[in-house]
Each structure stands twice: as structure tokens, then as C-alpha cells.
Amino acid sequence: MAQLVYGMITSLDGYTSAAEGDLGTGAEDEEVHTYIGDRFRSVGTFLYGRRMYETMVFWETAHTLPDVPPHIEQYARDWQAAEKVVYSTTLGSVSSERTRIERSFDPDAVRALKAGADHDLSIDGPHLAAQAIAAGLVDEYHLFRTTSVVGGGTRFFPDSVRLDLELVEQRAFASGLVHSHYRPRR
């Protein structure tokens, strides 16, 4: 069975987006971007909410930008090769290949998707991930923490769920960003 992976860049205090400003520094260098690309290359399906999809659809054409660095081109090619499911009640159409819209998040349908998948799935966006976490669907958590404390915004973990996690691995980068990989204790 495939794993459902949830990973995002967060502030040091655990926010995926800040109430004001950005998440700070640490995530924009080539070393970090290459590492994230390598880490998620095994993902065969991305599950997105509308807002996250609208951010990520950039990768559909990123490889066509002038003077695109190899690590950006590779990430774009990997993203394009994956299936994408966008959960939205408002999105009328998609602008990327291998993409479909679902009008609601159905935990049983995601369980079936995991059971039938040859490659891991990634759930991206804290609101959509909160639903998967509440349903007990997430198998791995990847926090890519910047060096900034932002004091508020949208949290990586939902407030309404208790999780007991074990640290699988951790890596610090020269930029200050720290990757922490967790799995639920079973």
C-alpha cells in the first residue's frame, strides 16, 4: 500500500503561512530545493486544495522559463508526470495535465486510492491535510522549518487532533532550514 505524505515549509513556530509577511528565510536555496525534489520524487499523486493547486500549477510550465536551473527543470518534470487531484467546490476547470477535480474530500476514496497506488501520495495544504489527519490517513509528516517565528497564521497541524509521532530523521541545511521527518507511533 502507498503512503500518504504531508509535507510543507513552515515557520519555526509551525505556521505554513504567516498572518503578516512571509515565512522567513531558509527554503529558497538550491540545496534545499534539490533535497525537497529528491525527497518527493516517489510521489505519484498529489492531493491539493484549490489554493495550493493554484500555487503549484506554476510547475506545469516552469521548465519553459529562460535559463531555468537543472534542479527547477527536474522538479517541474516530476510534478508534470504525477497525477493531481484538486478538491474544490469553486474551481471550474484545471490548467494542468493529469489533473482532475473532486468536489469533496472523501476519506474512504483516499483509502482506496492509497490501497491501489503503486507510488506514494502527497497531501498538500493545511486545510485539506487537516481532514486527512483527522481521518487517520497520513503516514508521514515532513516539516521544513525556516528560521523565523511569525507568531500567527495557518498552522501545519490542526488544533483539533492529538498525534503521537516518532522522529524518523532530521537534517539541517546551511541556510538554517531544518527538515524533520515524523511517522505516527503505532
TrEMBL record:
Gene Ontology BP annotations: riboflavin biosynthetic process
Classification via InterPro entries: DHFR-like_dom_sf, RibDG_C, Riboflavin_Biosynth_HTPR
GO molecular function: 5-amino-6-(5-phosphoribosylamino)uracil reductase activity
Domain Bacterial bifunctional deaminase-reductase C-terminal: 4-178
PANTHER family in the record: 2,5-DIAMINO-6-RIBOSYLAMINO-4(3H)-PYRIMIDINONE 5'-PHOSPHATE REDUCTASE, DIHYDROFOLATE REDUCTASE FAMILY PROTEIN (AFU_ORTHOLOGUE AFUA_8G06820)
Protein name, UniProt field: Bifunctional deaminase-reductase domain protein
